[in-house]
Write a structure and sequence with these properties.
heterodimer; A: 73 residues; mainly alpha; 434 Repressor (Amino-terminal Domain); two-stranded antiparallel ribbon; 5 helices; 2 strands; 51% helix; globular; B: 173 residues; 0% strand
Amino acid sequence: MAIVIRLDQMLHERRMTLTELAGRIDITLANLSILKTGKAKAIRFSTLEAICAVLECQPGDLLAFDPTQPPWE
Amino acid sequence: MNTRADALALSRPFLRVLIVLNLLYAAGIVLMFLVSLLAPDFLFDTLGVKHGDHRAQLVMGMRTMMIVGVLAALVVDRVLRQLLAVVDTVRAGDPFVASNAARLQAIAWWVLAGEGLRLVIGAIAWAASTPAQSLDVNVGFSLAPWLAVLLLFVLARVFAQGTRMRDDLEGTV
C-alpha cells in the first residue's frame, strides 16, 4: 500500500508505547496494532482525531504517500 | 435457548430428512421408469392407462415425464444441499461470506430451473393427452415461485454487497 502509517515513528519520538496510547484513546491494542503495521484498510476520523489529540500532531504527521510502494490490491 | 436458535438447530436435521426423502423420491421414479421398460403392460395397466391407439402416445409421455421428474429431483437436491451449506455457516457463526452470496445465487438459478421443468411437465402432459384419455397432471401456473426466484436473486446481491461492506468495516480502525 502506498499510504504509509508513521505511528511507530511518532510514538518513538514521544517515548510512548502502543499500549499506553491504546489506554489513552478508546481503541483496542489489537486495532492500533493493525493500524501501526499498515494492515488497516481505512481509518475513522474519530480515530485520527483521538491519536492526533494524544500525540499532539497533525494527520499529515501520521500519514504519508509513498509512490514507490505497490498500490493497494 | 431462544426460538431463533431452536429454529436453527431444527433446520439442519429437517433439511437432511428432506434430502433423503427427495433422493428416495428420485429412486422411486427411476424404479418406475425401469419397470416401464421391463414390464410396461403391468405398470401402465396399474396406472390406469386404457388400451387403444392412444396408449403408445400416453406411454411415451409418461416415460418422458419420469425422466423430467428425476431431473427435477436432482434440482431439488442441489437447492437443499446449498441451503444446508448456508445453515452450516450460520451455525459456525459467520454467515456473511462471499460463498453464501454465491450459494443464494445458485439456489435462485436452481429454483428457476425447477420452475422451468414444471412447465416442461405441463407441456408434456398437454402434448401426450388424447381425446380418448388425457394425462391429468396439475401444473397450474403460480406467481409465487417466480417471485421467490426474483427475491433470491435480489437477496444474493444484497448478501454480496453486505459481505463487501463488512470486509471493509473489518479493516477499519
